[in-house]
Amino acid sequence: xxxxxxxxxxxxxxxxxxxxxxxxxxxxxxxxxxxxxxxxxxxxxxxxxxxxxxxxxxxxxxxxxxxxxxxxxxxxxxxxxxxxxxxxxxxxxxxxxxxxxxxxxxxxxxxxxxxxxxxxxxxxxxxxxxxxxxxxxxxxxxxxxxxxxxxxxxxxxxxxxxxxxxxxxxxxxxxxxxxxxxxxxxxxxxxxxxxxxxxxxxxxxxxxxxxxxxxxxxxxxxxxxxxxxxxxxxxxxxxxxxxxxxxxxxxxxxxxxxxxxxxxxxxxxxxxxxxxxxxxxxxxxxxxxxxxxxxxxxxxxxxxxxxxxxxxxxxxxxxxxxxxxxxxxxxxxxxxxxxxxxxxxxxxxxxxxxxxxxxxxxxxxxxxxxxxxxxxxxxxxxxxxxxxxxxxxxxxxxxxxxxxxxxxxxxxx
Length: 413
What we know:
Layout: H1 3-22, E1 27-34, H2 41-59, E2 81-88, H3 93-105, E3 112-114, H4 118-131, E4 135-137, E5 153-154, H5 160-176, E6 183-189, H6 192-208, E7 211-218, H7 226-235, E8 239-243, H8 246-258, E9 267-268, H9 276-282, E10 290-293, H10 305-317, H11 323-342, H12 347-355, E11 359-360, E12 370-371, E13 385-390, E14 393-398
Parallel strand pairs: 1-2, 1-3, 3-4, 4-5, 6-7, 6-8, 9-10
Antiparallel strand pairs: 10-13, 11-12, 13-14
């Protein structure tokens, strides 16, 4: 046995002792890894509010038709409470790897939830795999994350292939309705999120007969996007498809305004385009932006739990649930449900319980059909929606089965 195997086996034995104690009640430590400082710090702050709202639902009794809500604590573990332990990955994949290992070996967490940035989820989940600790990707949407053959990786929400398919089906519907949708502009940042998103969009555009007139990759957190926006303005696509985090999304909108470029339509891959900080920063420039999403408050008409949960979150955060925070909240409930059914804090037993998850969509706050994981850990029933920013709020515009408004098209009409 080499030194690394000795260290790993020692850590595993230490974890066994902690998990045995957890089974008698008390607290179940769950690691949470998000950007709590740096340019994406607001994402981490909002995530913390969402995750703590979910823990409140798990640890207390509420008349909500959601997993683990009605009982105070986890009955399968003597009404034990979920204890969230937070770590700051600072949007750095290697920092994420180190913090994941610290959570496992020092904090003795039984599972980890994260991480917003797909690049961090990639390193964090690989670390969890080595230690036999489940990793729940709450909101990281890169399609490549679930294709690595990991046993301990689970993602309840959609990935960008699923989101992009919904976006292109929407474009097809607009075209069928007589709207002008012939040319596209792909604009994406250079981490795993942006590159994976662009690859899917390029493929779908070719399959469905759309012409890409701008295909622009830029450096994440770039200090200037002037040259890139000039390229977009010159190409002037019918639809701009951006994949950017918050800081970049704000810079993009401000640069377009400075250069006098008003896209005919923007259909965004959420991320920065769904954050309150983005709308606070760009104001009226955001009117008409369409984003793919996992969540909309409009769904409260069909899922009554949404309003109560949103009130709980808003009391903490001072804002409504959005695409990211809704997914983060549901990740805790899905994981807590699995730990409860596992009746154990052992990683392999929790993994088996996650693999056996089957939660009907109406027992979530999402527009999903259900939560049921494939062999690769991906929930294939996580149906996306498209929402448009109109009148200072998002309204659902697609699919028609859940839409509450017709899309404003073009957005700058």
